[in-house]
Write a structure and sequence with these properties.
Pfam families: Thioesterase (PF00975). Belongs to the thioesterase family. GO terms for molecular function: hydrolase activity. There is one protein chain. The protein is of the alpha/beta class and about 250 residues long. The chain is built from eight helices and seven strands. Helix 3 links the parallel strand 4 (about 90-95) and strand 5 (about 120-125). Helix 2 (about 70-85) packs across helix 3 (about 100-110). The longest helix is centred in the last third of the chain and has 19 residues, at about 165-180. The protein is globular. The two termini are about 25 Å apart.
Length: about 250
């Protein structure tokens, strides 16, 4: 297996709380417009159980000078290539919103190439890949795109109100929305690892039934967890979500 790089050598992952002797790794995939930093506190909570890698997509924070990847299959391919050297122990993939689709496609690439690694896929705040999704948000003018982000409640309103910060996040935000809104997967496309779906009961973008349809995309076990809240239910249900993840790590 290729030599593994450290977190400081690899732009794609943030390893906030290294645990070299961990029996497993959890890989966290952020939502559209999000960054690895969203999962810093999650990493601290999971660090007694697993080594945690938070994915850093191009076009944000310390990768602000890079163009965002506006094709979800291309993004997944690039993450997969960087993640393979870290698959020296079982991987649990956790993705929220757009991150769920990226994690799913990364898992599919491991299976495509016959490479062991993912043992569970946790998908949060996301309709199943074969469910139709809105395809127009990425075409909105800047104000409309930012309004959609604010409506979902995952971004500090003060950030959206600052003209300089808005200008910084818009390119990656539009790239992310383009990636997820132009992504299509058929019902026959799936994985052979267990899938855990998590969703908020008042998510304006994902119904419980649309989340349940993730069961169509695995030939292994499936479980669904519904929490109170909207698209970013996990902000106030973090401990409960972490318990779901750690229960699979213990298993």
């Amino acid at each position: 297996m290729p030599g593994r790089t450290t977190v400081t050598d690899n732009l794609w992952f943030r390893r906030y709380h290294p645990f070299d002797a961990a029996p497993a790794r959890v890989v966290m995939f952020p939502h559209a417009g999000g960054s690895a930093a969203y999962f810093r506190d999650w990493s601290a909570a999971l660090s007694p159980h697993a080594d945690v890698l938070a994915v850093q997509y191009p076009g944000r924070l310390d990768r602000i000078d890079e163009a965002a990847v506006d094709s979800l299959p291309e993004l997944a391919e690039r993450v997969y290539a960087e993640l393979r050297p870290w698959a020296d122990r079982p991987l649990v993939l956790f993705g929220h919103s757009m991150g769920a689709a990226v994690a799913f496609e990364v898992a599919r690439r491991f299976e495509r190439d016959g490479v062991s690694g993912p043992v569970r896929l946790c998908v949060s705040g996301s309709r199943a890949p074969s469910e139709p999704r809105d395809s127009t948000v990425h075409l909105l003018p800047d104000d409309g795109l930012l309004a959609e982000l604010g409506r979902l409640g995952g971004t500090d309103a003060r950030l959206l109100a600052d003209p300089e910060l808005r200008a910084l996040i818009l390119p990656s935000l539009r790239g992310d929305y383009t990636a997820i809104e132009t992504y299509v997967a058929g019902r026959e496309e799936g994985v052979t690892v267990p899938v855990t779906a998590l969703t908020g009961d008042a998510d304006p973008r994902v119904t419980v039934e649309q989340a349940r349809d993730w069961a169509l995309h695995t030939t292994a076990a499936f479980d669904l967890h519904v929490f109170p809240g909207g698209h970013f239910y996990l902000a106030h249900e973090r401990d409960a979500v972490l318990e779901v993840v750690t229960s699979h790590l213990r298993a």
